[in-house]
Amino acid sequence: MAAKIITSPFIGIAAFVTFLAFFAFYYNPLSNKQRLFTVEELALYNGTDQSLPIFLGILGSVFDVTKGKSHYGEGGGYNHFSGRDASRAFVSGNFTGDGLTDSLSGLSSQQVKSIVEWRDFYFRSYTFVGKLVGRYYDTKGNPTKYLKGVEAKAARGAQLLKKQEIEEAKQPGCNSRWSQDEGGEVWCDVGVPRLVQRPLEIALTGKMSKRCACFKEDQLDQSGLEVYQGCDFLAKTCPV
Questions:
Q1: Which residue from 11, 113, 125, 228 could staple onto 154, CB 3.0 to 4.6 Å apart?
Q2: What is this structure's pTM?
Q3: How crowded is the C-beta side of 34, counted as CA atoms within 13 Å?
């Protein structure tokens, strides 16, 4: 008895979409380095279709991360980055909903610098396959004003970090450690720990922040030095 072949229009449609994605990538008349993706096209390479490579976007640059399939493939710990540009999530840690966006609005120069460093990591570690048309690249593959602004802000972050390192080297920082069982503590090999306000112009987050620094006894009359709560005035080690 001859076997009956069961057909479905949905199977045909799925196969056709897969073929188009495969053809668009491997037979694009432009070189892979000049491949321009739309958001919809990039979404096809999110690791759910085993016949396609896995792509990831960051700051509009698209990379083939298939060799990291165990991480970027379906069910992998980094799969939320696949098939999209979720640049913001590289520093925000928000991997759901609105957090998976390419917008860097409101981020500090240091955070933007970190995202640029992540992009550089992918250039070193994975294969660059093209650009995502939208916020960072126009329809001709040219950088947008937004991308140029991001890179300028990252450069300011690098300058700020260098300036902070120089300024804070003038007053040694505290040693610190933390464990889940014992909590945290700071201590000084020379001097005593004090909380000091960072000048706003070298605050990497763009907001007022404090750090722990070590001061000798003859320096303790300076203004703005804060004794850790629950710590003796001349204690070399303080719980935090």
A1: 113
A2: 0.63
A3: 6
pLDDT tens across 66-95, in order?
999 999 999 999 999 999 999 999 999 999
What is the DSSP-derived secondary structure letter of residue 137?
A: B
pLDDT digits (tens, 9 = 90+) for 115-140: 999 999 999 999 999 999 999 999 99
The structure tokens listed for 12 are 């045909």
Confirm if 35 and 25 have CB atoms less than 8 A apart: yes
Residue 229 DSSP one-character state = T
From CA 159, how far away is CA 67, in angstroms rounded? Answer: 35
Contact predicate 85/57, CB 8 Å: yes
Q: In this structure, what DSSP letter does residue 68 have?
A: G
**Residue 227 and residue 239 in contact, taking contact as beta carbons nearer than 8 Å:** no
CA pseudo-torsion sign 83, 89, 95, 99? negative
Locus of tokens 């069910």: 75
